[in-house]
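Researcher: First entry.
Model:
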Amino acid sequence: MKNENGFILPIVAILAFLFAAILIYQVELLESDRRFLKERQNYFLHDTLLQRASLEMLSILEKSDTIEKVAGQLTFEGGSVIYKVTEEHQNETVILLTSTTDLPGKREIFLVYDKETKRISEWSEGIQ
């Protein structure tokens, strides 16, 4: 055997450090991807809740002739939507829908419903 004067120990330490650094980096990437996926799922859940609530509000508005200031809550699978209805003009009704889920964050949309055409004339979104 040759006298290597401790040549192997520094190489093993450097390789172990590099392996640990790569492992930590990959774990951080995995956690980042998990957070991103959870945020996207939450976003799509809010989107689905608001679409379902807007369709339900449209059916309610089409069936009734007069709407006074109304507030309530629609509960769906995955979350709920709080609505507030105010009548601004004879032909328009403004609706505020706010969706909430178990995850943090809320999403709001403002709808302007035209009674003559029985359609949504304006749609504005906001994220909180």
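Researcher: Second entry.
Model:
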Amino acid sequence: MAWTIGVGFYMLALGEFTGLWLLVAGYALACTPAAFGLLIATGRFWTALTHALWIGLLYGGLGFAFLDVVLRAI
């Protein structure tokens, strides 16, 4: 997820607009676990979807911001 978002930003910086697809894919990867978990836990589709979008935004943003820390630890 963080790699996809990072490569998407890099491609956009180079002027390649296919990086938008990578940003969308990374955001979807960040939202998917929260969406399924909340759907199973609450059983309410729209609540799970809207909360997962916010969680995915936070999770994706923090993953991208700390990507260098994570890669250094590996």
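Model: Note on the second entry: Residues 19-42 form the longest helix (24 residues).
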